[in-house]
Amino acid sequence: MLSLGAVEICHLYISGGHNFVGHHGQEPDNYPMIEVAMVECVAGCGIRGDRYFDFKDDYKGQITFFSLIVFDQLCQTLGLGQRSPAEARRNIIVRDVDLNELIGQDFDVQGVRFHGTEECRPCYWMNRAIAPGAEEFLKGRGGLRAKILSDGRLRSSGDAILAGARESSVASPSTREGRVRVSPPR
């Protein structure tokens, strides 16, 4: 299995409901993205507690990944100042990996196996969720949709943990750095 090196999980987010999916022509809902120290990945189902958990059989977006570097570039380009990457409404915010290279690949992060299915293409709602121009900026770099192939837990780096998170769910120094390994396409 080819190793892409270390990937840092900077933030983990879940949401209990859909703000934009199924709302075309209507106002969005107001379900917040909640930052957590750890997520439980369930093979074939999604992230326990997230809006896409058991959403559809064999759903291609059971989990989503997004680059913090891309988000920072977006904010700088659009003159947004300091904003939360939760606005992108993706689950796993990472650093140090080209997510587009994982499309069509099996890979693992912190011992959990995934299959990258496609780019998490931005839609017109990004202009509302983040700012006008976000959809255009994010074309080709909107993140990665993936299927979860094995059960396990992901933990964010200690820098991204919200105050008040339980000590037992905070990643120890030995688990802060995840490894990404890629298998040939299935």
Could you give a short description of this structure?
11% of the residues lie in helices and 32% in strands. The protein is built from 3 helices and 11 strands.
How does this model look, in words?
The model is unreliable at 1-5 and 159-179 (pLDDT under 50). The chain has 186 residues and is mostly beta strands. The protein has a single domain (2-18, 32-157, 177-183), classed as PK beta-barrel domain-like (M1 Pyruvate Kinase, Domain 3, Beta Barrel), CATH 2.40.33. The strands form 2 sheets. Strands 1-6-5-9-8-7-11 form a 7-stranded mixed beta barrel. It contains 3 helices and 11 strands; from the N terminus they run E-E-E-E-E-H-E-E-E-H-H-E-E-E.
CATH superfamily: PK beta-barrel domain-like
Which CATH architecture? Answer: Beta Barrel
Biggest sheet statistics = 7 strands, mixed, barrel
As for the number of domains, it is 1
Average pLDDT taken over every residue: 79
In CATH, the topology is named M1 Pyruvate Kinase, Domain 3
The level 1 CATH classification is Mainly Beta
Q: Give a count of the beta strands, DSSP E runs of length 2 or more.
A: 11
Structural class category: mainly beta
Termini, distance in Å? 13 Å
The percent range for strand residues is 25-35%
Weakly predicted, low-confidence segments? 1-5, 159-179
Radius of gyration: 16 Å
Counted by DSSP, the helix tally is 3
Question: What's the arrangement of strands in the largest beta sheet?
Answer: 1-6-5-9-8-7-11
In sequence order, what are the helices and strands, one letter per element? EEEEEHEEEHHEEE
Helix content: 10-25%
Global shape = globular
